[in-house]
Amino acid sequence: MSDNNLNTLNTLTNELQARRQKLENIKNRDGVVWKDKFERSHTIINARDLSDNDSVKLAGRVTALRWLGKLMFGRIYDIEGEIQFSMSREELGEENYKFMKANVDLGDFIGISGVLYHTTAGELTVKVDNYTILGKALRPLPEKYHGLTDTEARYRQRYLDVISNPETRKVLLGRFKMMQYWRDFMNQSGFLEIETPVLQNVASGAAAKPFTTHHNALDTDFQLRISPELFLKEAIAAGFDRVYEVAKDFRNEGMDAMHLQEFSMVEWYAAYWDYKDNIKFTWDLIQTLLQKCRGTLQIEYQGTLLDFSKYAMMDYTAEMDKLFGCSILDFDDVNVLKQFLIDKGMFTAEDLEDLKSIPTLIDWVYKRKIRENIIQPTFLYNYPTYMVPLARHNDDDDRRLDMFQLLACGAEICKGYSELVNPIQQLNAFEEQAKNIANGDEEAFNPDNDYVRAMEHGFPPISGVGLGVDRLASIIFNQPTLRDVILFPMMK
Fold first, then answer.
1. Is the pLDDT confidence value at 9 over 70?
2. Measured over all CA atoms, what is the biggest interatomic distance in the chain, rounded to whole angstroms?
3. Where would I find the beta strands (DSSP E) of 39-173?
4. Can you point out the beta strands (E) in 242-343?
5. Per residue in 456-481, pLDDT tens?
6. Which end of the chain has fewer CB atoms at under 10 Å, N or C?
7. Which H or E run includes 291?
8. H/E element, 278
9. Which residues fall within 8 angstroms of residue 58, CB to CB, at 6 or more apart?
10. Cβ contact 203:224 at 8 Å
11. Angle between the N-to-C axes of helices 334-343 and 358-369, in degrees from 0 to 180, rounded to the nearest 10
12. The overall pTM is greater than 0.85
């Protein structure tokens, strides 16, 4: 161990011992160190709307202390802000003032009462006439001026990151308020929030590999849902015309800046809508969230200015046809398609070796040749039928889907479509997916016969959308990874 690390460890050990002694001092005086409650008159943010000489009772974590002889200044914190307080030996009395100085540290929770005033520097401050120690922190907060800077420590001890890094606090508070605004928008638009199972016999509704777990009481394996889609559409069939769910989904796939195995989605479904209705609804929702969260439709994301006052439309099939130099709808053999791409010099055989089906291969090519170049908000539409087995076939061309995706900065924000409500077509699509699974495609859709049976009882016209909460939040709040907008991200 280096001398610097040894000195740091010794300093920490001394501080822990000192705080333990202060704990005993508080216990001897108050009887109880960690108090059971404190009656606040206001939150910190509400106190900031009051006037000088108004009385307040506030509480929070101590984040600053500065002693100036017979006078001290400090700050208390909660998630929405900080406020300065002052104490004087004259106001508190000699004993209380000395006890505060000797036993309260940064990180402790205190309650204060007093009146508001502005200092000569113009800062709103509470002149304290009484204080209560509400809880002792036995470990110190991160160093004041540098905060918590180690990336893994930031994610693993997120509470310290929130306390010490104002940017983290702002982003995470913004993300949770975004969800309040989102729910308000859905509720005001006539949607009902419902719940669907996380443990499912068959995890379907997306092209993804599920997690598997064992149910001891039933002695049966279940899968964690990859999407709530099928259950939400069954709710539509039951008569709930407009439904949505804020869902935790799980996909046992690779992890990178824009993909996590556990993530949040909002999915919504409306009876009697088509995909064009949902394009308009989705755009209205995103613009509303931007205005609520950022106050503007022009935002910067990782150095790029995004303009959400307008969007472009891109024909997926036409764009892929242009790339291929022929119609992608004509391919029906994955090996023929692989050889075509190799002959054109687009990829090597090694690149394509693990791709086992036409939809997986087409999507793989699109993500590497087209998606990354889509910067400004763009709705893609007109997809091949084989891409999504749950989407409605176009009435004029059975080889195409009534489907869309919204992208910005090369990232998929949402996917939506007119839903397939024809049980005969749905069964055929699931049978095709079963073949892809048999051929080794781990990301093919899992067929769900119970869902087909529900559809045979009759579905109305439906359109639905799935929108990634974490990804949208990362764009709105200009964060480079999904972990930066998740309060407690998954860690190894």
1. no
2. 89
3. 55-68, 71-78, 81-88, 109-118, 124-135
4. 242-250, 262-271, 298-301, 304-307, 312-315
5. 999 999 999 999 999 999 999 999 99
6. C
7. helix 275-294
8. helix 275-294
9. 40, 41, 42, 43, 44, 47, 76, 83, 85, 111, 112, 113, 126
10. yes
11. 30
12. yes
